[in-house]
Amino acid sequence: MGSEVVENGVLGSGGGFSAVEPPHSIAQARVDDKGRLKLPAEFVEYLNKVGADKVFITTIDLQLARIYPIPVWKGNENLFANAGDLAELAEDVAYIAKYFGGDSEIDAQGRVLMPALLRKQLEMESQPVWLDCYNGRINVAGKAIHEARFHRAMANLSEKVKTLEKKGLK
User: Fold this and answer.
1) pLDDT tens digits, residue range 85-95?
2) Contact, 48 vs 40, CB < 8 A?
């Protein structure tokens, strides 16, 4: 994979941009007792279509695990390396990402190995998790984070929908 870019959450090639659409839904999965996350079929298909047979799995906010196709992660590394006046901030975020992160191959059953320290920190050991795609990465939320996000989204939902319909939501 050469010059892949993410545009509007869709990963594609910089030259001509052949877009690969990510899954549009939130899917539930499980981290097994050996630390393997079995990715739902639509997420495996997405990673296959973008040519990702290896991923970098980490957290940068200590809330969500993030599964990055390597080209997307390399874009983050480039951002960290060229952060200019935000160099110290970028170095700190990169340090956390490296500390909790690790490379993983996607096995024939569509599983990735979640780094042990990451699983423990985010309480994802032998637990259900919820996955969604965002900006070329796959977010993985544990039960507590998923429930908090869900309850926040549900609060005043009808008002949120009315507001967005006024802005053009179909």
Assistant:
1) 999 999 999 99
2) no
| Domains, the chain, with CATH or none | 4-142 (3.40.1550.20)
**Any idea what DSSP says for residue 107?**
-
| Measured distance CA(153)–CA(155) in Å, rounded | 6
How many CB atoms neighbour CB 95 within 10 A? 11
Q: Phi/psi at 65 (nearest 5 deg)?
A: -80, 150
Tens-digit pLDDT profile for residues 121-157: 999 999 999 999 999 999 999 999 999 999 999 999 9
What is the rounded distance in angstroms from the CA atom of residue 64 to the CA atom of residue 134?
12
**Identity of residue 74:** K
Candidates 52, 65, 35, 44; CA nearest to 130 is 65
The token pair that represents 59 in the structure block: 């957290």
Structure tokens at 7: 């545009």
Angle at alpha carbon of residue 43, lines to 155 and 124, rounded to 5°: 65
Q: In the prediction, which pLDDT does 9 show? A: 47
Q: How far is CA 69 from the centre of its chain?
A: 9
pLDDT of 19 over the 90 cut = no
